[in-house]
Amino acid sequence: MGTSFKQPIPLVTVVLGMVWAVSGCAHGDGKGASLEPEALIATAGLPEDLRLELAAREPAVVDPVGMAFGADGSMYVVEMGGYPTRPEGTPPLGRVKRLVDVDLDGYFESWTLFADRLQYPTSVLPWRDGILVTQPPDILFLRDEDGDGRADTREALFSGFPVANTQHNINGLTWGLDNWVYAANGGNQGSGHPAGEPDAIVSIRGMDFRFKPDTGVLETSYETTGGHGITFDAWGRMFGTHNLNHIQHMVFPAAYLAQNPFLSVPTTRDTISDHGASAQLFQLSDAETRVNHPEQSGRFSGGSGIAFYGGGALPAAY
C-alpha cells in the first residue's frame, strides 16, 4: 500500500531578498539598475488578493540569510557578511541584528547589533533567554545579560561541524513538534559533537540532524537535501529545499532504516513540486548567462528558504 504526499500542502517558500527589499536589485533594462525598496516591491507582480510589505531595509539589514522572531516580537536577522570567502587573516564578517517594531505597524525601525565577528552564520533560533546560531564549526548560544540589545556571552553548545564550501554549511535551525531542535546538513557532510566531548562524534554524512540544547544530545534525523532551510507542517512532516529542487518531502526518519542494516533504500526523499524539480523561472530581470552549468539558466539554481504556514491570513484560494 503506497501513500502519495503530492496533494496540495500549505507551504510558503520565501526569498529573503524580496522580504527585505533592499536596494541594488536589477530590473528589466539589463543594465543592473538599482531600485529603491518601495519601487522594487511594486515590481513583485503578486496576485491582486496578496500584498508585499517592507519590513526592514539597509542599514538595518545587510546580506540577510535567515531570521526568527523572539517571544517579545523582536526579529533576529542573520547576516552572512563576507560570503563566499574573505581575505586570509581578516576577522569574520557575519553578524546578527536584533530589530524591533516600536509602533507595531509591521515595519522594524529600531535595531541593534546583537553579535558580530561570526564565521558565515546561516540561521538563528530563540531559546530560553538568548538565541542559538549556526556558525560552523559551532552551534552557539548567545545571551544579552544587561538588556542593551547586544550579546554579552557566547557559548558553543556543539562543535566539530565542517567548514568547507560556505554555501553548504549547516543551517535551518527549526523546532520540531517533539521539542528537538532540527537543522540541515547543508551539503558539507562531515560530523559534529557536543562541545567539550570531541570523542562523542556523530556522523551527519548524507543526513540532517537534531539536538537537545539543554542536555547536549545530538543525533541524525532525516536524509538531507543538501540545501538551505527545513520546515515542519502541523502534522510533523518535514520539508526541505535544494538549489535545483525547491521543495522536497523527507518521508520518514533515518532511525527506521537503521533497524535493518541489510535493507537497501535508494532515498527517503520525495520531490513534491507540481511543476518539476528544476523548474522554469519567469523572472522580472533579464536572464543571466552562466559559465558553469549553462543549462540551469532560467531555472531554479539557488532555491533556498522554506516555511510552513497554516494560519488564516491568506485568502481562501490558498
Q: What does the secondary structure layout of this molecule look like, with pairings?
A:
Elements: E1 11-13, H1 16-20, H2 37-42, E2 64-69, E3 75-79, E4 94-100, E5 110-118, E6 123-127, E7 130-135, E8 138-143, E9 153-159, E10 171-175, E11 181-184, E12 191-194, E13 202-203, E14 207-212, E15 217-223, E16 230-232, E17 238-240, E18 248-250, H3 254-258, E19 269-271, E20 306-308
Antiparallel strand pairs: 1-20, 2-3, 3-4, 4-5, 6-7, 7-8, 8-9, 9-12, 10-11, 11-14, 12-13, 14-15, 16-17, 17-18, 18-19
Structural account:
It is a single chain. With 318 residues, the protein is mainly β. The protein has a single domain, classed as Neuraminidase. Helices cover 5% and strands 31% of the residues. The protein contains three helices and 20 strands. The strands form five sheets. The protein has a six-stranded antiparallel β-sheet with strand order 6-7-8-9-12-13, with no helix packed on it. Strands 2-3-4-5 form a four-stranded antiparallel β-sheet. Strands 10-11-14-15 form a four-stranded antiparallel β-sheet, with no helix packed on it. The chain is globular and about 55 Å long.
